[in-house]
Amino acid sequence: MTPNAWLHRWSACFTMAIIMTVVLWGCANVPRHYVWMAEPGTTLTALTAHPEMYRGKVVLLGGTIIEEEENEQDLWLHVINRPLDQDYIPHGPADINGPEAGSYWVVVTKQQFPRQYRQWARMTVVGRVTDTQRYGTEPVLALLYVRGWGLSTAHHGVWENINPNYLPSTPGSIKKN
Predict the structure, then answer these.
(1) Residue ranges per domain, the chain?
(2) pTM for the full predicted model
(3) CATH 2.40.50.140: does it fit domain 31-160?
(4) Which of 43, 58, 125, 165 is the most buried (most CB within 10 A)?
């Protein structure tokens, strides 16, 4: 094989490897290990109707932040549900008055969480269901992983909790149901 043919073959293989890496990385909206950890097919409707079945389990949900609260160490995000498609991308519910149009809360240590989240129009959330509910029926998730979808790609972002076994303590101001 001549040096020119070898270089041409090597360049083609290298280009193919780069293209495959970009394609596969772009499709990985949620790391595979979180997809495997999560309860398959979980919806907000099921989570709200049977919270005891999901306590301590990992779930995948989509949403849009509608409110935030902070205390000394935690950031609480009130999220309106946006069901996920097969690629784990959040979209609006089919019926804006239906059960999937409800909301839930996400709690994360505020020192760890990037302020870029305020730029996210939608998010894909991986969280562990806590034993807490706010306002009677809204589940609370301890955040493990989030992918933020901004209005432009410059505002997209990803955050991952270093310890997936982390369960935040429940602040005294939150009443357990």
Answers:
(1) 1-28, 31-160
(2) 0.74
(3) yes
(4) 125
